[in-house]
Amino acid sequence: MKRDPGRYLQPCSDSVKTWLRSMKSAGKVLLLITSSHSDYCRLICEHILGKDFEELFEVIITNALKPGFFSLVPEQRPFRTLVNDVEESEGLPSLDKPGWYSQGNWPHLHELLKTMTGKPEPKVVYFGDSMRSDMFPASSFGKWETVMIVEEMEGEGVPKSDAAKCNEAQVEPLEKRGKFEEQGMKAPSDVSQQWGSYFVDSQGSGGGGEESQKLTWCCHCIHKYSTMAIPSVEHIADLPLDYKFPRFSPDKPCTTGYYPRPPDSLLKRCESLS
Hey, which residues does 60 pair with through a beta bridge? Predict the structure, then answer.
């Protein structure tokens, strides 16, 4: 990975970088929270965001040990400073200024955000792709708004954004992509022929009748612990910062909350129930 990161990593599109800068220019506090260690985080971010990626974020937290980062007293871990990517042995009693830290906990981060924003209850929108490490703990304990990255949406009729297509064409030559297609390799977002849809499970009645369409456990969790779901950040990067998205809600159809549109299996399920 260190010898040739370009072989494994795809740089972010210019639209995503512009989106991050526009939020910072608009006065938003940008955070990067990852369970990766600092050296690995730097390797990844320098390749996908650029050598100046640290300028994009006021607070960077590595080795966050999610979901433990969202633990409450007495289980919460203290923040630690770093020297040459090595954690200091003494934990910090609190977080009093922006910077790059290791480990830590959301209550101390919340207090810092109060100071930085000047608001008694700052609102946080948290993007992640893991239900266990991101969505569930951030919404349940941190009470943050959560946006889940669900690439499986692209396997069910949701087209890739123009920015993503353009970016892929620039970083991956067509002849290289053709070789993978010739070998029969499928994209990670493609629907599994063995397991079926990520969102809807077809169950037979046992008597030869029609199959029933039930939401999968994963789909239930997305609706319960996420504010909304998108297939990639590129899908929203070109929208105005004040764009109003539909959000998941128990009193709304289960297709509400997916942007730019729901996956095919959910649409078909709604059609069969109507």
Answer: 32, 100
The answer to whether the beta carbons of residues 198 and 191 sit under 8 Å apart is yes
Residues near 261 by Cβ (< 8 Å), separated by ≥ 6? Answer: 157, 158
Q: In terms of Cα–Cα distance, which of 266, 13, 269, 20 is closest to 156? A: 266
Phi-psi region of 131 (alpha: psi -120 to 50; beta: other; left: phi over 0): alpha
Query: Which among 202, 198, 110, 196 has a CA at the least distance from the CA of 148?
Result: 198
Per-residue pLDDT of the chain (274 residues; tens, 9 = 90+): 889 998 889 899 999 999 999 999 999 999 999 999 999 999 999 999 999 999 999 999 999 999 999 987 777 899 999 999 999 999 999 999 999 999 999 999 999 999 999 999 999 999 999 999 999 999 999 999 999 999 999 999 998 877 666 766 666 655 455 545 555 556 767 888 888 899 999 876 666 667 788 999 999 999 999 999 999 999 999 999 999 999 999 999 999 999 999 999 999 988 777 6
Q: Is the pTM of this model over 0.85?
A: yes
